[in-house]
Amino acid sequence: MEEKEILKTENEKLKKINQERSDLISISVHQLRTSLSALKWILKMFQDKETGELSQKQNDLIEKAINSNDKMIELVNDLLTLNSTESISDLNNLEKIDIRELINQVLSEFSSEAKEKNIEIIVSKENNDTPLITCDKKMIIIVLQNLIENAIKYSNENDKILIIINKKNNELEVSISDNGIGIKDSEQDKIFSKFFRASNAKDKNIIGSGLGLFSTKIIIEKHKGKIWFEKNNDKGMKFIFTLPIL
Amino acid sequence: MKKVLIVEDDSFLQGLEVEKLKKVGYEVSTASTGEIAMQKIQDETGINVILLDLVLPDFDGFDILRKVKTINTLKNVPVIVFSNLSEEKTIDKSKELGASDFMVKSNFTLDELVTRIKEIVK
Questions:
Q1: Residue B10: C-alpha distances to residues A31, A43, A76, A95, A205 (Å)
Q2: Number of C-beta neighbours around residue B88 at 10 A
Q3: Which of A5, A71, A106, A138 is deepest in the core (most CB within 10 A)?
Q4: Chain A residues in contact with B104 (beta carbon < 8 A)
């Protein structure tokens, strides 16, 4: 009994520390974003020549600064997501959801990015009925956002992205395939590591923080699911995740 | 001319917002504290849209949103929450209290903000 009490007290202490850490990150993110917003808006004013004509060199430098600032904004956004992902010790907001609805919702969020690159996204289901799954809806939305955003970012113009929903035994399997730049074989074992960025993505100056797939894996595993990837027809990637049908 | 009330405590960001909105043809009124915002929403007329920051030195932005929705002449005026907070619970609460939209400042340019304002006050 005494041991139980000690454990309970320790647990409460840890929860408090975790909450304080989480609050500190939220406040820091808010402050960081304020400075980053100011920079973003000012740099855009320069780029749009609102402050006067720019030389080619000045224009190039402004473009690099915008790109660098956008990278920082993405990093801050992903840190915030990771903070909320890591701070949930249990999944408290479980509800029954239709994965197709969530996929459609996320696709509508990225419609302008897909349109900009003329990317066609096809959603297909292998079975007639897609069973509902019990999950934390907001967390699964983050998973879909990360995977769909990556597929669009790393695709080339006029590519196709295929999303397949499949029921297999007691699991729902979702795969997202693109025909994009893929990843080198030598880097594949690091893909879900914190802050990892593929060298070809960095070479192409594609913005990313290296936290998206790390957070995605944590969320899927908290749902007792699995996530992995395969090469898609020698080019591009195919990410597959499963979630238990409860 | 449409009128925008900007509630923003960061004077630098507020200055940039004012400059952009005036440049594209809006009349602009500003409040840098919750108290001034409360005063303005009660006294000023002709406000077509409110741009509301949530973290203010003296008030919670939600209090201002609540107040707006209790004033007959303002309750149908769209409120765009323009904040650097982005937690789901904050977004949900803003929508529950009647905000028309929630935009994270650092994720949008001022041109995108103008586009959203135009869509909302159309």
A1: 11, 18, 20, 39, 32
A2: 13
A3: A106
A4: 33
DSSP β-bridge partners for residue A163:
A123, A176
Answer whether A40's CB lies under 8 Å from A69's CB: yes
Q: Which residues of B touch A40 (CB under 8 A)?
A: 106, 109
Q: What is the pLDDT of residues A172-213, one digit of tens each?
A: 999 999 999 988 888 989 999 988 888 888 888 788 888 899
Alpha helices in chain A (DSSP H): 2-47, 56-87, 99-109, 111-116, 137-153, 199-203, 212-222
Cβ pair B87:A26 closer than 8 A: yes
Asked if the Cβ–Cβ distance from A41 to B85 is below 8 Å, we say no
| A90 φ/ψ sector (left φ>0, alpha ψ -120 to 50, else beta) | beta
Summarize pLDDT for A141-177 with one digit per residue, the tens.
Answer: 999 999 999 999 999 999 999 999 999 889 999 999 9
The residue whose two tokens read 């192409």 is: A204
